[in-house]
Design brief:
Strand 5 and strand 6 (90-104) form a beta hairpin. The chain has one helix at 32-35, and strands at 40-44, 48-52, 54-60, 64-69, 72-86, 90-104. The protein has a six-stranded antiparallel beta sheet with strand order 1-2-6-5-4-3, with no helix packed on it. The mean pLDDT is 80. It is elongated, with a radius of gyration of 30 Å. It has a domain at 35-104: Immunoglobulin-like (Sandwich), CATH 2.60.40. The protein has 109 residues and is mainly beta.
């Protein structure tokens, strides 16, 4: 006769849990300016313009800053303009900003 001690518990044999496949994550919905390299311009009142995704500075003086972008030339017009920060793909123009102009470079938009 088999004796079961009261301190021992008899468990059912373990079974392996099945993995339920997860659905694939949706692709990231990135803004067009990021995916296509289009310029992004952020104005802070009439004091600062933050320009991202540019290709370089074409012209610069105290009344205008002309910047190359993928398919555009971007001009910031104003008074007492200065470049506050100029990095590889972003720059900050400070001063009294009066206008921002976009024009196609090398053909139609």
């Amino acid at each position: 006769m088999k004796t079961i001690h009261p301190a021992r518990t008899v468990h059912a044999p373990r079974t392996r849990a099945r993995r339920v496949p997860r659905p694939a994550p949706a692709p990231l919905a990135l803004p067009a300016d990021v995916t296509r390299g289009e310029p992004r311009i952020t104005l802070y009142a009439d004091e600062r313009a933050f320009i991202e995704n540019h290709s370089g500075i074409i012209e610069f003086d105290s009344t205008h800053v002309r910047v190359a972008a993928r398919r555009l030339a971007l001009t910031v017009r104003g008074e007492q303009l200065a470049l506050d920060c100029c990095e590889h793909c972003a720059l900050i123009v400070r001063g009294r900003i009066l206008a921002v102009e976009l024009e196609p470079r090398g053909g139609a938009l």
